Amino acid sequence: MFKKEIFGLDVSDNSLEVFLLKRIFSRLNVKSYGRSLLEGEIVKDGIIKKPDLLSAAIKKLLLECRPRPVKTRYCIVSLPESKVYTHVFRLPPDLDNEQIKNALPFEAEKIIPFSTDQVFFDFKIISREKDYQEVFYAATEHQIIESYNKMLRQTGLVAEAFELESISTARALISLKERQEPVLIIDIGARSTNLNVFYRGAPHLSRVINAAGNHFTSVIARELKMSEQKAEELKRHSGFDPQKYEARVMFILQKEFTRIITEAKELIKYYEDEKNKKIAKVILTGGSSLTPKINEYFAENLNLKVEPGNPRIKMADGALYANALGLSMRGVEKKPFVSDINLNSISVKKMEIMPPLQEKKEWKKIYLGIGLLIFFGLILAFLIYASQKQFFIFKSQNAIYVYDETENKQNTEQEKTLVGEMEAEGDKNFVTVKNTGSYLNVRKGPGYNYEIIKKIYSGERFQLLDESSGWYLISIDENLKGWVVGEYVQKE
Q1: What order do you get walking across the sheet with 119-128 strand by strand?
Q2: Of 62, 230, 333, 391, which one has the fewest beta carbons inside 10 Å?
């Protein structure tokens, strides 16, 4: 049987990210990805406020994913750290999984503010020592999972798993080898900053700070007496660079980041004293981690090696998709439902799908028949492929395209159209919007004083028409042209 495709769905307060991978032998290939911004309070602090609008936004994004729409209905969804309670318990070394499962509710009631019958929980053993074993525990309230599942059903989707945002992000950013040392991941989003000490496949210590990108933009706008749009542009242009904008933006950001630095230092000290292990390095991720010179700022203040969050699969805008990518990486595993923490409330129902014991013989006959049909079908398909192989590979001046016979006729026509478009472009000049963590304003003229006529986003590509004093004139469509700051686009 063919393995069903499962995409990663990252729902945050300000944006949606979708990522779908396809495994070809041991190699992971990007099949589809997309991102859209959420305006208003559709989601607030991880709580779905307007399920109808969120459902519509997800449907729209799935259709607009590049290079092809996402058609599978199965997904893995992350939960925000602020809505999940976690703890690492030390339990007797001789307890098996069933005994741990029965013991954890009693242990958990000592640390979570709810009765254990009000939460869904899961656990995994992360280390075994002579005198104890360490068990990572995660739990979230019933109403959180039920609200997400209800919205997904409305959208026509099925959640294979719900997991922690910190785990999926770490999966995308940290290799298996690097997981053998403690790493501090600082995820600076739009509304909150998450600090997680990640070690041996689990977050050992976490902290959520209610200060992030949107707050920093508002403070810059207030201090410099300008609009939030202009403040956002300045933040992305100047950041912590002392050479930009007379260092005024840098001084504001340094003051606002003091709390994050203080919390990070306390977290590092507590972990190193408690566990007697040193933090190996710091990884910065999230949209605001793209702020200029931010790596140098953290390295200087934390006295640790600081790296940008570069996903293990290289692509444009990788930092923005880290969480969704990590979810999708779980989706291509052999048993994504049980391969890591899963807080989905329908787990019991899923396990009941297996046939009863007395029916196994009848099911074996059915499976054998299906297996034989598939076997002979594959032989027939191979013979057809071998005789018509020349139709699956064609060349053009610009590229070589290899048809994927599992894709439908519509995708084949799209690829042919793409070749025609590439040939028609000829010697035209194009620019691609850089990975900025937000949108880029298009203005009527080459300067900040001109009216904003449109917003464009990271990864979008436009024809370059003219240049003037560091500004580029681009063609949005047949009827609309506008100017953008040259620093935020990459000329091809």
Answers
A1: 85-91, 133-141, 119-128
A2: 391
